[in-house]
Design a protein that fits this description.
The structure holds two protein chains of two kinds. Chain A contains eleven helices and no strands. Chain A is mainly alpha-helical. In chain A, helix 2 (46-53) packs across helix 11 and helix 4 crosses helix 6 (130-154). Chain B is of the alpha+beta class. Chain B folds into two domains: 13-95 and 171-250, 3-Layer(aba) Sandwich (Rossmann fold), CATH 3.40.50.300; 255-378, RNA polymerase II/Efflux pump adaptor protein, barrel-sandwich hybrid domain (OB fold (Dihydrolipoamide Acetyltransferase, E2P)). In chain B, the strands form four sheets. Chain B has a six-stranded mixed beta sheet with strand order 6-7-8-3-9-10, sandwiched between helices. In chain B, helix 2 (111-120) crosses helix 3 (126-139), helix 2 (111-120) runs parallel beside helix 4 and helix 3 packs across helix 4 (155-167). Classes of the chains: A mainly alpha, B alpha+beta. Chains A and B meet through helix 7, helix 8 and helix 11 of A and strand 6 and helix 4 of B.
Chain lengths: 271, 380
């Protein structure tokens, strides 16, 4: 391996500092004992205790989780179906329009998406609630799933599906027992992406949420507007912790799969 | 291969009028937009045949096979399987299985589950599936690899898994799309004999698509040579080689010398072909009588020409030329001889004597001799 030059070391340090100093600061201040957010008042975990007692935050977290699970699952089902039709449907009338329409929300400003959804819900007389947030999140995250899944489908050997049909599968059975297991990694990443997008979303949710259905980002945003409390720091630290653990597990599993595959291929070459 | 043996009836159902074909293409046309892949094709394939579709890429052989599997439907005409029109039958309902060029093994399933895949979707009772899979594993010598995933075995083993999987349901017809294309030469030759063995054991009708003429000649009972969506010739490998019906077939299968000329005399089964001014016409046997005055190509295989320092008096034709090149292959040598009239003829001789004792070498004048039945007069 090449020696680590001072240039590489500097750019790495600068890059990581840029990315992580704000977060580290936030984590440190979540253990601040003082009332004032910006002044260090000794180490304490009391804001974590306060957080557990704060029912409004807990409710919001629960709503966010519920919305995330439901909307990402719906978006995954719809997005996978759309991707399948786009990649495998062959030529049909309006295909170009359909694919354009699927990918348009990717570049649509969130404010516009949120506003138009709000208008729609009012027009059909749907009360703003968890349901409306789920619908809205499904709408905008579905296209992300579709992009992820269709890229996998394009590189997928179509003769596998033909082989399944040839061996007696109905088209649906072929999809279920051959296509789906093979594209499963892409479907799972699509689901995770949709889930993350739903957790993150503030703009669209603020249009379509009602008084009884506040998501965590909305709650944090409105709390911060009244002044940043150390409680928010604690909450953010917990979220950072959860995300870090998730990413580490994913990386570990991926690494193990790669190593296993290399071993298998060596075995195959030797056989 | 259908070789006539003593005290054994020759396998040639295509010559027997009482035999009903298993597959019957009548007037089948397949168009993709403006492109005609198959053009008014008629073909009968019989039970237990090992039938090879041979042709360059884009000749329509794969389309023909995909129509049998049910992945394409003919634009025109009918395909019958066992007497029934199969146009409306979807692939999963056909008693036909296919072995794909890419093998199309399911990467998420073990070898065992790959082979059992079709059986689990058939009417076979669950307790018999295991036995059938084991039987297929034995047939293809894969017992040791049953629990492995496709990426954990070698290319040759994958090829055998694909074969086992497509044979497991005991189809009436097995389609093989370039089955040996991905194997190296040595493994390919071995596998060709294995395929023939398995075909004989199971009694299944095989239709194989290949662009490798040697492979088609080795394995098939009959070969169909295709070009531009049409069948040019359908015959046994020996007949295709010895009696090609056209310049295209003669040129496609093996090496051949083609000499263009005009028929200047015809008498009782033989004719004379003039190919150059001042050169004696070639005497050749021909069953066709109306060829006088027509332009023809005289085709002769290199191994049917004798090279010598003197003309061979027992052979009807002898021409003089000069050796331009010698390709020494150990057992045989190929001589490229330039005739006085300008044509370059290749002739092949077995090296029955040691190299040092050969009577002729580069730049030597030699005589090429052949009998009147050694070559063919082709009118198209």
């Amino acid at each position: 391996m090449r020696r680590f030059s001072w240039f590489n070391a500097t750019s790495l340090t600068l890059g990581f500092a840029f990315l992580y100093i704000p977060m580290i600061l936030l984590v440190i201040y979540s253990f601040n004992g003082g009332r004032n957010v910006a002044v260090w008042g000794g180490f304490s975990t009391k804001w974590y205790g306060e957080l557990v007692k704060n029912e409004a935050f807990l409710d919001a977290a629960l709503v966010t989780l519920k919305v995330g699970l439901m909307s990402s699952t719906l978006a995954t089902i719809l997005g996978t179906m759309a991707a399948y039709v786009l990649v495998r449907g062959g030529k049909f009338y309006g295909r170009t329009l359909f694919s354009g329409a699927i990918y348009a929300p990717l570049v649509m400003p969130e404010v516009i998406t949120g506003l138009s959804l709000l208008l729609l819900f009012i027009a059909v007389g749907l009360d703003r609630s968890v349901t409306t947030i789920v619908l809205a999140h499904t709408t905008f995250s579905m296209c992300y799933v579709s992009v992820v899944v269709s890229s996998r489908l394009v590189s997928f050997d179509q003769s596998l599906e033909e082989a399944a049909l040839d061996l007696g599968c109905t088209p649906f059975d072929a999809f279920k027992s051959v296509t789906l297991p093979i594209i499963a990694p892409a479907v799972i990443s699509g689901w995770l992406l949709a889930f993350t997008l739903s957790l993150d979303d503030l703009v669209i949710a603020s249009f379509v949420s009602g008084p009884s259905s506040t998501t965590l980002p909305i709650k944090i945003w409105s709390a911060v507007r009244l002044g940043v409390s150390p409680e928010i720091n604690a909450l953010s630290t917990i979220m950072i912790g959860i995300v870090t653990v998730g990413v580490l597990i994913a990386a570990f599993m991926n690494k193990r799969a790669v190593v296993q595959r290399q071993k298998d291929e060596q075995k195959a070459a030797a056989a | 291969m259908a070789q006539p043996a003593k005290n054994q009836t020759v396998f040639a159902p295509w010559l027997d009028d009482s035999q009903k074909p298993l597959i019957e293409f009548s007037n089948v046309t397949k168009r993709f937009g403006d492109f005609t892949a198959i053009d008014h094709l008629n073909l009968s394939i019989y039970e237990k045949e090992f039938f090879a579709l041979l042709g360059p890429s884009g000749c329509g052989k794969t389309t023909l096979m995909r129509m049998l599997a049910g992945f394409e439907t003919p634009s025109d005409g009918t395909i019958r399987l066992g007497g029934e029109d199969i146009a409306a039958v979807p692939p999963n309902k056909r008693p036909v299985n296919m072995m794909f060029q890419s093998y199309a093994l399911f990467p998420h399933l073990s070898v065992w589950d790959n082979i059992a895949f079709g059986l689990r979707r058939s009417t076979m009772p669950k307790d018999q599936i295991g036995a059938r899979v084991e039987e297929m594993l034995r047939l293809t010598r894969l017992e040791k690899f049953a629990r492995r995933k496709p990426h954990q075995i070698s290319g040759g083993q994958r090829q055998r898994v694909a074969l086992a999987r497509s044979l497991a349901k005991a189809p009436k017809l097995l389609l093989l799309d370039e089955p040996l294309g991905a194997l190296d030469k040595k493994l390919r030759t071995e596998t060709q004999f294995e395929l023939m063995d398995i075909q004989e054991k199971t009694g299944t009708t095989f239709v194989i698509v290949t662009h490798d003429q040697e492979e088609a000649m080795t394995v098939a009972s009959r070969v169909a040579v295709m070009d531009h969506g049409q069948l040019i010739q359908v015959a046994t490998p020996a007949d295709i080689y010895e009696y090609p019906n056209s310049v295209y077939v003669a040129d496609f299968i093996g090496d051949v010398n083609l000499i263009e000329g005009t028929v200047t005399a015809v008498n009782e089964g033989t004719c004379e072909v003039s190919y150059a001014e001042g050169a004696a016409p070639i005497k050749a046997a021909t069953p066709e009588s109306g060829v006088l005055g027509t332009k023809v190509a005289f085709a002769i295989r290199p191994e049917k020409i004798v090279v010598g320092t003197e003309p061979d008096p027992t052979r009807a034709n002898a021409v003089k030329g000069k050796i331009e090149d010698i390709g020494y292959l150990g057992n045989i040598s190929t001589y490229h001889v330039r005739l006085d009239s300008g044509q370059l003829i290749s002739a092949q001789m077995t090296n029955s004597r040691r190299l040092a004792r050969r009577d002729f070498t580069w730049e030597d004048e030699v005589w090429l001799s052949w009998t009147d039945t050694a070559g063919l007069v082709l009118t198209r």
